[in-house]
Amino acid sequence: MKKTLSIFMMVVLMLGVLSACGPKRDDAGTKDTGKKEETAAKPEKLIVWEDKDKSGWLKKAAADFEKENGIKIEFKEVEMATKMRDQLRLDGPAGTGPDIVTLPHDQIGQVATEGLIAELKVDQSVTNKFSDSSISAETYNGKLYGLPKSSETPVFVYNKDLMKEVPKTMDDLYTFSKDFTKDGKYGFLALWDNYYFAHGIIGGMGGYVFKDNNGTLDPNDIGLNNDGAVKGAEYIQKWYKEGLFPKGIIGENGGSAMDGLFTEGKVAAVMNGPWSFHPYKDAGVNIGMSALPTLPNGEHVKTFMGVKGWHVSAFSKNQEWATKFLEFITNDENSKYRFEQTAEVPTNKALLEDPVIKDNEGAKAVAEQSQYAIPMPNIPEMGQVWDPMAKSLQTIVTGKTKPKKALDSAVKQIKTNIESTK
């Protein structure tokens, strides 16, 4: 009898538990539809850190968001490339930091690992607005950590008074340079002893930094000394060996030396990024811009692409509303307005055909070249690549070492560096 009563009581208890769980099924059903319930209380304000000399456009966007949502946006400028991350490390834990920051995408792996930024939870309809490569740049270990605000990549910049039309191929450019290069003048210059620029050639020939396994980079699989990388390095060496590049554009002062020659009208074309457009124009050069000519193997120059993005601080107490603000300021309308104010090219797909970008020669060149570019690896191990590759490339362009041997040495050093940081 006791055994029968005990079993009966267990059944009653189980039914009670199941009954108590019943109402929650409706909530779960709502979540399955993909609809978000606004459960977070509205904060009085959100604090935004924008890059130095780039916050003017935020006045209008902030006012529009406040009018629509009743939340004030307070913003200040912090230099993005070096100071933003360091300041977040200090102010975030202290509770005096921002809700939203902007960072270059190659810092994401590090700041995400340190727990400085939060994973973003947004609908696919939001991410679908941007180019796949820019969303990939904002993703680390399969998780989205930011929404893109702009991208940049090296393009072909030429002096229209010295070059009447853009060569379609690098072979055509090589032929032009052979004829033009004399008496202190050069047909084409690039900082190919700098791996940031050299990757366009090495990557286009088949080399790679880390193997990309469906969006996850494998730091144990380095392709900087494979057959394609060697061919790319040999092609780079060819330009220096034949005197088409002057010796003065190697090393730390190479960029300023190249810019000086170009602005003096001694160079017909260069490989450079959008940051150079205004200085060249201010120097009085009649510049044109386009995507880079195709390589001898028929492939496009696979330049590195840098993406600047918006991120939610992991220390923010208003992450849900901060994410809503990110969605708001990166919509097509606000991204277009920001471009008009800052000249930084957005990655919104809908804007590629908008006259504001389509009719802008520089923006169009960056947008087109970005289609062939790859995001710089955003995993922490990338920090161990730059120095060995720079040293390797400098021995290659000066003819001190054969490409294969130099790249083997670089990869060996990169692997040692990565292992030492584990």
UniProtKB/TrEMBL annotation:
Subcellular location: Cell membrane
SUPFAM superfamilies tied to this protein: Periplasmic binding protein-like II
PROSITE patterns: PROKAR_LIPOPROTEIN
Chief localization: membrane
InterPro entries hit by this protein: Maltose/Cyclodextrin-bd, SBP
Membrane topology (UniProt): Lipid-anchor
N-terminal signal peptide: 1-20
Pfam families, alphabetized: SBP_bac_8
Domain of life: Bacteria
Keywords associated with the record: Cell membrane, Lipoprotein, Membrane, Signal, Sugar transport, Transport
Entry's family note: Belongs to the bacterial solute-binding protein 1 family.
Protein name as annotated: Maltodextrin-binding protein
The species this protein was found in: Neobacillus kokaensis
Upper taxonomic lineage: Bacteria, Bacillati, Bacillota, Bacilli, Bacillales
